Amino acid sequence: MTRMYHSLPVSAYTDQDWFDREQRLIFSRSWRFAGLVEDIPEPGHYISVQAGLNNIFIVMGRDHRLRAFHNICRHRGTQLIRAVGKTQKALTCPYHDWTYDLEGNLISVPDEEREYPGGLDKSCLGLKPASVDIWRGMLFVHPDPKAPSLVDWFGPVDPLLGPHQPQELVEYEEARNSYEIRANWKIVVENYIDVYHLSHLHSNTLHMYDHAAAEYGWKGPHYHFWEPPAAAYAKNLEQNLPTPRVIPEPHVGAWVPMLFPGIGIGASEDSWNLFIITPLAPDLTRVENRTKLANVSSWAYSKQAWRSHGFWRSFGGPKYSGQDAAGADDPMASGDFTAEDIYACEQQQKSLTSPFLEIGPAANGESPITNHQAAILDFMAAQEALDR
Asked: Which of 287, 291, 241 is CA-nearest to residue 266?
């Protein structure tokens, strides 16, 4: 039997040079999640996002059209805006007060006659445009103003992501959070798509789904995954759901894709979740989580919580307890699958510096990892070929 082995060297997870190549060739040349459509509800609202080497902002113009620009003043390169906000009519650089309208045109330069006695052609000094598009209720940006279509980018994998309509759901603000993991971004992705670990690391925290029956594969660089509910959960599923349904019956299961590069979606019968991965350093990654639920009354939520209380009261528990736990704050004793994942990622990153490290053969359930590594290499090679 042919065994699968990992195709990326250890240096791909530890070296600054490799990290810089990824920032230049992957994250600066692909569609980047920026937010949800409701983050920019009215003219003047804006958000910004780091897309590889580029900071890009989206703003809604007075014509209600969304536009994306590189967050760089055309005078000295200062960033014009902060992460999130609203302006009435214009965007002003804090350094020298050069001002642009919501369509990116330079409209005002302070002391223009004195500082530029020969005059300025402001029509040549507008903000540099980027691309913006909407897909499944999400905002995406691309540094290239002539980027390939977002529909083409996600199109092949779209039918495999579940029947969810996230634009019709409402965000559960209390679940929104971000945190840092002391590990390379690819380790975080690999953990997310590792089917083998689901029945082991999460043996007590995610056993409401049948991991052995999971169906998964690839469409281009995008990973798709679906698994059915486990028998105990499915036996009385409509009662056991912790919150009201977000998809119509008879759809069941968990859809957990990882879209390239680093856009995780966790969708089930009763929720739709985002898991956005941002590389910060070779050994540091930020993750942002956002959750959307059914747009129904608070009474419907209360009623479903009462119905499911009996199931969830006896469900799950920590992987380790008692003498097996390393202490009260041991992630393996938390009963929280996210804490379990973070622990596993960080411990793996630590081992990468050991001279005794030797990565073993990949299990069948780890085939997504080797496929993702191939996708990384293929995408970077294709971009380098374009540069030649």
From this structure: 291
Distance in angstroms (rounded) separating the CA atoms of residues 74 and 123: 12
On average, the pLDDT of the chain sits at 92
Domains: count for the chain: 2
Last residue of a domain, one of 97, 116, 146: 146
pLDDT band at 1, cuts 50/70/90?
very low
Sheet holding 138-142, edge to edge: 32-36, 138-142, 129-135, 66-70, 54-60, 45-51, 84-86
Domain of residue 36 covers 32-146
For the stretch 61-110, pLDDT in tens is 999 999 999 999 999 999 998 767 777 788 999 999 999 999 999 999 99
In angstroms, the CA 46 to CA 51 distance is 16
Quick one: 202 and 142 in the same domain?
no
Q: Are residues 62 and 205 in the same domain?
A: no
Cα 310 versus chain centre, distance: 33
pTM above threshold 0.90: yes
